[in-house]
Design a protein that fits this description.
The chain is an alpha/beta fold and 328 residues long. It has nine helices and 15 strands.
């Protein structure tokens, strides 16, 4: 295995200082400049490109304006932003994340309501865009943005406290609070998709049967109370307190149902309110949650706005390793 990795240039040897008699020792280190994963993010408020090495380090990053009306236009813009960064590198795999319901295995996008997209062969279109960059045939994966962010936080985010059992982070939830409300769930090192690939739609958990209407057609859904748009309508201490109360209700359901080691808060609403929202939620959580769950389990995303983009890159790298080396 090491010989194959050396031949492909994915790892390299580095001599160690001599220690006594005998053959000098050689260290192996991951190559970090030429062999990269490509990550594309499409979202309502922006698009982005990143090239990431096998250590999880970003070698290039480009932020773009919000997604245009058509998928083909979005992919063309991502192609154009990526092309200048491909000289002299080998792209091992590529990933694309979108805020929508999709089937990762087939790559079919069922619905991305906030983008206005539905019933699209997303993975097929993604592969065509990669081929246009000369990347035909590389491993490619598509994923929901909250799932990608959850995986990125698990794999790259450093969520564990010093001395904490690392097994606790095999189960974590990322709660995305933006135009919509969604969640990504990692269970036992893997993204959990559910029987129909729609796990994590926590924004449509009803919190108040007679509450405000939700775009899904029901009333009082979590999303109706916790959207970023609602915060922008009346940013104030009173609105923050009200949202913290509703978020504590939602978190109690998530904690009781999934028992994660961490629930990580991210998205535009969290970026706007930050520590104030976190402390208000933690103060209210004991009123709703079981005693076994503590307020300290709820944290802010250490990756900020980059969680989905970095998670997409991490998923692409894992897919490369799985498809290239697992059977070996």
């Amino acid at each position: 295995m090491v010989a194959e990795l050396l031949t492909e240039g994915l790892v390299r040897e580095r001599p160690l200082p001599p220690r006594g008699q005998g053959r000098p020792s050689v260290a192996l280190e991951v190559e970090g400049k030429r062999h990269l994963a490509l990550a594309w993010e499409i979202d309502v408020d922006r698009m982005a490109v990143a090239l990431m090495n096998l250590r999880g380090e970003v070698r290039a990053r480009v932020a773009l304006p919000p997604a245009p009306p058509r998928l083909e236009e979005a992919l063309a813009q991502l192609q154009e932003a990526t092309a200048p960064h491909l000289k002299g590198v080998r792209v091992l795999a590529a990933g694309l994340s979108v805020p929508g319901l999709l089937e990762p295995a087939s790559g079919h996008l069922t619905l991305a309501p906030n983008l206005g997209w539905f019933d699209l062969p997303l993975l097929e279109r993604f592969r065509e865009a990669l081929a246009g960059l000369g990347l035909e045939g590389i491993p490619a994966v598509v994923e929901n943005e909250a799932n990608a962010a959850a995986y990125g936080l698990y794999a790259l985010g450093g969520l564990g406290a010093e001395g904490e059992d690392p097994l606790i982070l095999e189960h974590c939830v990322y709660l995305s609070l933006g135009v919509g409300v969604g969640a990504g769930v990692v269970v036992g090192h893997k993204v959990y998709h559910g029987a129909r690939f729609h796990a994590g739609e926590v924004g449509h958990i009803p919190l108040e049967p007679e509450g405000p209407p939700c775009r899904c057609g029901k009333r009082g859904c979590a999303e109706a109370f916790l959207s970023y748009r609602r915060w922008l309508e009346a940013p104030s201490e009173a609105r923050l307190a009200e949202m913290a109360e509703r978020l504590a209700q939602l978190l109690a359901v998530v904690l009781a149902t999934l028992d994660p080691g961490r629930v990580v808060l991210g998205g535009p609403l969290v970026e706007a309110t930050g520590e104030a929202l976190l402390q208000a939620v933690r103060a209210r959580l004991p009123r709703y949650a079981l005693a076994v769950h503590t307020p300290e389990q709820v944290v802010l995303s250490p990756l900020g706005r980059e969680a989905a983009l970095l998670g997409t890159g991490a998923l692409a790298l894992d897919f490369f390793v799985e498809t290239s080396y697992e059977e070996a």
